Amino acid sequence: xxxxxxxxxxxxxxxxxxxxxGFAIGLVFGVLARQAxxxxxxxxxxxxxxxxxxxxFVVMGLWASPVPVATVVLxxxxxxxxxxxxxxxxxxxxxxxxxxxxxxSAYFMADENWALAMGEFGKGRRDAAFLLGGxxxxxxxxxxxxxxxxTLGNAIxxxxxxxxxxxxxxxxxxLLCGMWRGRRDLLPWIVAAAVAVAAEKWLxxxxxxxxxxxxxxxxxxxxxxx
Amino acid sequence: xxxxTYATRVGGLWLASRLPMSGxxxxxLGYIPGAIxxxxxxxxxxxxxxxxxxxxxxxxxxxxxxxxxLVSMLTGVGAVLLLRTLIG
Lengths: 226, 88
Known about the structure:
The structure holds two protein chains of two kinds.
Chain A (H helix, E strand, L loop, with lengths): L4 H10 L1 H20 L4 H11 L2 H10 L6 H12 L1 H13 L4 H9 L3 H12 L6 H24 L14 H13 L6 H17 L4 H19 L1
Helix pairs in contact in A: 1-9, 2-4, 2-9, 3-9, 4-5, 6-8, 7-9, 8-9, 8-10, 11-12
Chain B lengths: L1 H17 L4 H25 L1 H18 L2 H19 L1
């Protein structure tokens, strides 16, 4: 694996449409954070430092004065547990690289640039900076849009009205189409989908992502064994 | 929040880089991306009703034909917008 500027630029270019829809979602987050009592700068700071959309939205639902710190941190942990699996999948590609590059890149690992990077590495293109480039662009867009949303206030309050709530589902679906490696993926995908749908129905919060990912990936290996 | 998030981002990478890279471990890691993405998407499509399901079909069709992420995303957003207006 290499780690070059041109790899980072490739990652940024590939993530441009994602950064654009992320901008719209960030506007909404800024508005919500403002309603929950955060200042625009505070909200933007949260976007830059936490940089985890799902967790931030969940936490805004829990925000109160005084801030329930323990609850907020616990919710963040639970929502983000899927990152453990995602980071594990990256490990083989960052093996020979320095710690600064690996753990620095990990700070900017969001669902979208991670998924694109896995697709990229899977096709045999080996520049690990792809993840960082995409992450930096998304983080910049996410932070700026939070600031703008927090400043503008209520102008945009309902992303569903514009179909924007479906943007990320569409991106994930399109990425999935490129990840199909043939029949061996069938069983893991079915297991993951079934577990995720059931878990989303019966369990609170975001456990369904972690459970589906874990069960699906394990199903692939278990079948391989026999 | 920032620390909790970063811990999850680094934790998996750190743990997995300490695992012995046997064939099975690598095979397992290779199955993770698809399984995670399916898990993110399946509940939305299933619980979103007919509108989300039809939009999902449109996205998959376009993605398989063009392989273009931006076009696929715009198709999805456009389809949802159109169908919600038509069906409500």
